[in-house]
Amino acid sequence: MDPALGPPDAMAEKRDELTPMMRQYHDLCARYDEAIVLFQVGDFYETFCGAAERSARLLEIALTSREDSTGEYPMAGIPIDNAESYIEELLEAGYRVAVADQVEEPGETSGVVERAVTRIVTPGTLTEDELLASDDNNFVAAIARGRGANTRPAADELALALLDVSTGDFLATSSASDEAIADEVSRFGPAEAVVGPDAPADVLPEECMVTPFDDRAFDRDRAGETVSSYFGDPDALLASDAEIRACGALLAYAEYARGGEHEGERGDGTERDEAADSPVAAGESQGDRLEYLTHLTRYDPREYLLLDAVALRSLELFEPRAVRGREDATLVGVLDETACALGGRKLRDWLRRPLLEPRRIEARHDAVEELTGSVQTREHCHELLRDVYDLERLIGRISRERANARDLRSLRDTLAVVPELRDQLADADCDRLTALRDELDPLADVRDLIDDAIVADPPIEITEGGIVAEDYDADLDDLRGTARDGKQWIDDLEARERERTGVDSLKVGYNSVHGYYIEVTNPNLDAVPENYQRRQTLKNSERFVTPELKEREDEIVGAEERADEREYELFCDVRRTVADEVERVQRLADALATLDALVSLATVAAQYDYCRPEILDREAADGGLEIDIEGGRHPVVERTQESFVPNGARLSPERRLAVITGPNMSGKSTYMRQVAQIVLLAQVGSFVPAESARLTPVDRIFTRVGASDDIAGGRSTFMVEMDELATILRDADERSLVLLDEVGRGTSTADGLAIAQAITEHLHDEVGATTLFATHHHPLTELADDLPAAFTLHFAVDQTDGEVVFHHEIEPGAATGSYGVEVATAAGVPEAVVDRSRELVEQATPAENDAPTADAAATQYADGGELPADVAAELRALDVGHLTPVDALTELDRLQRLLEE
Ligand code: ADP
Ligand code: MG
């Protein structure tokens, strides 16, 4: 066990002799043994023993120690004022953090100050703005097994629940296939997951933190109660026991992480048993209910274009493929012109889950088209949306009572923008935009309330007054009036007393220790009246008070204190009233997010000359796919390249398997990805980088990039390659789009070719998937001629003066050569080496560079002599067309040496 977690051994041995404070620390560590406990001592959060040593090193803070009668314990503390940044570092190091605050004032108790864990910070349950990326969701997941609804008769299946605690987004799904759930997990990339007793953790990627949690939270009935306490009848809402168990457990976990003591959720055995008598988890934790969780959306993975982890990566949706690729060299990077965090998250959700249903896709296209048509509307909307705060997280904070007055003003400022946005959409035509206009509820009541109640520029502190506006509350105005009158009386006091005493230098002043005073310089002390009482003697003067002044002062202080209290009360009332409108605020947030995402798509479409794709009915292509793209471009590469050569694609059930050949660097991989990305963008609802596009929605995109090309993945084993191919061959169907890039390179040429050929035949004859297959195995082009629905494409290059010119233009038919050596020239390999290699290649490959035909020539050595057998064999095995320039160089160097010997 990590020595930073759990009760320190050194303390555990002598628990009963520890000072009460240290015992408290020990017990909290025992109770929250999965987290580092940050233990408030005054202005610091302290850690002790193993946790102190670890934190000191990780956070670069001083390691000190604390002594009591039982010994000396290492101690390291972080200042509370600056805690968030330290907590962030602990999270990054893979820890969970339990924050134990002093929950009573030190003065209030005779014994040790009571401390309690007020929140548990884990990667998946963050709500602190400072710790969250604004433009993406942060999900915590739960996985549970249970009786399912997807299979008849009902069999066990796996459910996944996903919750973003900061925004309230809550989703659930399930499937009879564990792999399908694994795919959904990669779509959403949860930061953390709780896993039910009989659910497999291996559907989670490595980077997802797995959190142990009370198994009983996954109990069907108990979970059902939890769900129902938030959303009503769980059976009406969710499809299966598995889903109910996952959702219920996730809610219980979110409440637990929210903090407070949850008897029975954790803790020791006796507490568990007691709690088991009352199965309603939520009932025990009233205080921690997450009121802003107002909707739970159940979805079926089959409603969306399915993208597994491999496809997500290879199509560069969110992560650049190249290891040191530019961060924005991704689909989301080229598409994201959103103005606010809400829109950024919406766009990412759309990208994660491209649609299948033509009507839904076209509704988005309609809106994008309309917004593309009007520069004015688009730009105005964008400008206005820039003033929109992150309403989802804002209302979450308001609802959790963590919002301050500035947050309320931010809400108000966002609401102020809404009527203007509605105006922008006044002439909207398409259904999506007119519906959006109606959904843009300005929440005038909420806005008026905040306007009336909260001053325009309030302080951050909510207990020290200065928040509530004049004329909002009569009591408050009275108290302020009293304080003001008192101060006025004091302001006038100086003039009155000067007149009364005749001392012109008499002054009224204030200091924080003695309060108000009247100061008389020494020469004038004779004039001091009867009722002055001496308070303080200075070098040149004396300070006095009068009973009346004291009385006024008390009145002022009292009124101010009560005013502050009253303000806090009123503020909390307003905050609660606003929190009651959580659902309306969330609906508004969703409308703003959608508008922002649509405007972003339209902006990109207009700026980069995208076209509206025509979406074909799913029945049109006779159960198969029709993909017809003219002048298509790679959305990411075209942004980084000075000039990009557009290429079309024409695929249909009759022409559904393309074998693509061409030299290295000619554009095969780019071409295949661009076809898939155009399809994907279309289904997201975006316009596409092409002159025109017509396509049937695709159910699923598979990609397999041969090991040698898979730079970012770094998983170059043949086994992985075959494993992923197996998935494709098993799961693909005629509605799938399959990209195979240089598959079959992880083994010998003969094996590789055999496998590639068998795969091609199977995909063609049995699977019927629309397939793009880039290959260096030229015999595959001959195979394509024999298969009725297969055809060949290639990238040609020109050679002038021994230099290769890439046109990046796709053409029908098979390529004739690979030009690997010329690529070496282009890459700057020294002339002499290139010449020599050209010589070697010419002998090795008379007409084509494919090994089988080169056999005879390879043994003829340039000097007229026989080529040594070992070198000949090496040469034959050399896959010239697909060596990288550097490999070619090394390889040539090696062969030359071999010959020399
Ligand atoms: P291959 O897979 O055939 O080896 P790639 O698709 O990786 O080739 O392309 C190599 C490089 O050529 C790309 O990085 C890109 O810079 C450029 N390229 C590819 N296609 C095009 C195109 N259509 N227009 C312009 N440049 C292109
Ligand atoms: Mg390639």
Strand content: 15-25%
CATH third-level topology of the largest domain:
MutS, DNA mismatch repair protein, Chain A, domain 3
Number of domains: 5
C-alpha Rg, in Å?
Answer: 36 Å
Q: What do these coordinates show?
A:
ATP binds at residues 662-669. Keywords: ATP-binding, DNA damage, DNA repair, DNA-binding, Nucleotide-binding. Residues 261-275 have a biased composition (Basic and acidic residues). The chain is an alpha/beta fold and 901 residues long. The chain folds into 5 domains: 9-121, DNA repair protein MutS, domain I (MutS, DNA mismatch repair protein, domain I), CATH 3.40.1170.10; 131-263 and 289-303, MutS, connector domain (Nucleotidyltransferase, domain 5), CATH 3.30.420; 360-599, MutS, DNA mismatch repair protein, Chain A, domain 3; 614-829, Rossmann fold; 869-900. Helix content is 44%, strand content 17%. It is built from 32 helices and 27 strands. Strands 13-23-24-25-21-26-27 form a 7-stranded mixed beta sheet, sandwiched between helices. Helix 6 crosses helix 8 (241-257) and helix 16 (391-399) crosses helix 21 (547-579). The radius of gyration is 36 Å and the shape is elongated. The structure holds adenosine-5'-diphosphate and magnesium ion. Magnesium ion binds at residues 668-669, 709, 741.
